[in-house]
């Protein structure tokens, strides 16, 4: 969203008045214009520092999936690499090498057929990574259509209405029709059969989310793949899957080893994840991988020559720091498989215990229990809904510094309003107990109300959606006609 200059800031346009620092004279600093001259670095620092004190405490922000804690050694490495531009691979060949090693590590983690020939890259986050995955799907579909002499002007992408907002942006920016599968009853994410029913010869792919931002649940990637296999057998329409593993792709490999969701499924063409979420790195780094070279059209890749070798690059952003990539490599080295497993296990243990405790308080009912992502959603039971809403609860917890988002679900379940808790590395059992104490403290006051004070329309939780923005679900389509070609050969 474009930033607009405020009509007024509540201070009648008054400049910032700076108190004396040590022996310095008082100053006035313009708010929205460059100062006429220089000032001491300590003065500038204090002005910015003091205003930032009014921000929320990131460690108490249970709305965000983004990492809010890192080891001092990781922060030190990031500071040492802040000036390195990630795209300058010939000037910073070791940073480029560390990026490549991370890609290979993720390829093995996600069961790529030949990790040594892994195709992937770092990005600024999972949103950019998702758009790159979508672009590759669109380009592959367009090439197949043109090779078959068929029109390629009406691409569509099938996904659940619960997808993160970056997919809506992708569809808008790159002229792809989004087809959203609505929620129905107690199904709060994409269903396999529902996805297949919306696919046709113009479908560039299906997005399966491993860890919905609405409630933390995994979408059934293997079931979706099986439904698309059946669709191809019946119609010849071959639809690949992109797995949006922004969070779950760094949870499932360590905690759910028997879950089939990654490149072990032949229909999965690409996977993205966020290094700065459960990859345990400070913002902003993401990753996107393709199962092989064929899944990423070569005309989307720019080839850079450095040290006599070829370094392919594929990204929407050009200049960006290498610090986060270095921090990702450090974290991979530091923790290893077992370390990641222990960190993610602790997060899930905290989430499942906290969900159970909140569900046992009486006024709340949990929709999910934190058993997939260490994330869960809960609502106010009908017996207390006449006294307070989830928006009242969110506002009351904010008095103690907790940032817990409250929001309504999208089309077909707009009757459902919930709170959501994201448990990240650094949110301990002790902090969970403090949250429970504050929740218990505000409940008597909320239950004493004669009617709710806050509602969704009040905008109390504006900016708190974090991927739960409403989207328009697509109507059901008739089954696609049988294609002339058999599509992917040998597909079971």
From TrEMBL:
Biased composition (Basic residues): 473-485
PTM sites of type N6-(pyridoxal phosphate)lysine: 277
GO biological process terms held by the UniProt record: L-glutamate catabolic process
A Pfam family recorded for this sequence: Pyridoxal_deC
Reactions the enzyme catalyzes: L-glutamate + H(+) = 4-aminobutanoate + CO2
InterPro entries listed in its UniProt record: Glutamate_decarboxylase, PyrdxlP-dep_de-COase, PyrdxlP-dep_Trfase, PyrdxlP-dep_Trfase_major
Region (Disordered): 450-492
Cofactor: pyridoxal 5'-phosphate
UniProt name for this protein: Glutamate decarboxylase
Organism: Actinomadura soli
């Amino acid at each position: 969203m474009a930033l607009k200059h405020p009509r007024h800031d509540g201070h009648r346009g008054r400049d910032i008045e700076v108190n004396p620092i040590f022996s310095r004279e008082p100053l006035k600093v313009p708010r929205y214009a460059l100062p006429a001259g220089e000032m001491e670095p300590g003065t500038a620092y204090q002005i910015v520092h003091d205003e930032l004190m009014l921000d929320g405490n990131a460690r108490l922000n249970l709305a965000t999936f983004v990492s809010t804690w890192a080891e001092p050694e990781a922060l030190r490495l990031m500071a040492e690499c802040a000036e390195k531009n990630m795209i300058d691979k010939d000037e910073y060949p070791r940073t480029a090498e560390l990026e490549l090693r991370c890609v290979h590590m993720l390829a093995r983690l996600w069961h790529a057929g030949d990790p040594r020939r892994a195709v992937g890259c770092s990005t600024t986050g999972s949103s950019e990574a998702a758009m790159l995955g979508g672009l590759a799907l669109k380009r592959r579909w367009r090439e197949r259509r043109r090779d078959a002499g068929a029109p390629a002007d009406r691409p569509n992408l099938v996904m659940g209405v619960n997808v993160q907002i970056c997919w809506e942006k992708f569809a808008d920016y790159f002229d792809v029709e989004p087809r959203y599968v609505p929620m129905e009853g107690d199904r709060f994410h994409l269903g396999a059969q529902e996805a297949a029913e919306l696919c046709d010869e113009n479908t560039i792919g299906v997005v399966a989310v491993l860890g919905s931002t609405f409630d933390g649940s995994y979408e059934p990637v293997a079931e979706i793949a099986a439904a698309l296999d059946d669709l191809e057998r019946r119609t010849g329409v071959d639809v690949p899957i992109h797995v949006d593993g922004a969070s779950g792709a760094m949870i499932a490999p360590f905690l759910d080893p028997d879950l089939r969701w990654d490149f072990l499924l032949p229909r999965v063409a690409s996977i993205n994840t966020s290094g700065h979420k459960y990859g345990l790195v400070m913002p902003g780094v993401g990753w996107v991988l393709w199962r092989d070279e064929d899944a990423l059209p070569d005309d989307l890749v720019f080839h850079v020559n450095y040290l006599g070798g070829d370094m392919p690059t594929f990204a929407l952003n050009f200049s960006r720091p290498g610090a986060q990539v270095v921090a990702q490599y450090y974290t991979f080295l530091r923790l290893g498989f077992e370390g990641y497993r222990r960190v993610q296990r602790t997060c899930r243990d905290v989430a499942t215990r906290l969900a159970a405790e909140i569900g046992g308080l009486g006024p709340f009912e949990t929709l999910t229990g934190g058993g997939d992502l260490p994330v869960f959603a809960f609502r106010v039971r009908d017996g207390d809904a006449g006294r307070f809403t989830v928006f009242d609860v969110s506002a009351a917890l904010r008095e103690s510094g907790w940032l817990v988002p409250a929001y309504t679900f999208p089309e077909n379940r707009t009757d459902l309003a919930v709170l959501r808790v994201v448990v990240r590395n650094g949110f301990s059992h002790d902090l969970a107990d403090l949250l429970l104490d504050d929740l218990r403290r505000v409940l008597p006051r909320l239950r004493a109300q004669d009617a709710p004070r806050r509602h969704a329309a009040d905008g109390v939780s504006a900016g708190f959606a974090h991927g739960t923005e409403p989207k328009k679900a697509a109507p059901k389509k008739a089954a696609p006609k049988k294609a002339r070609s058999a599509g992917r050969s040998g597909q079971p």
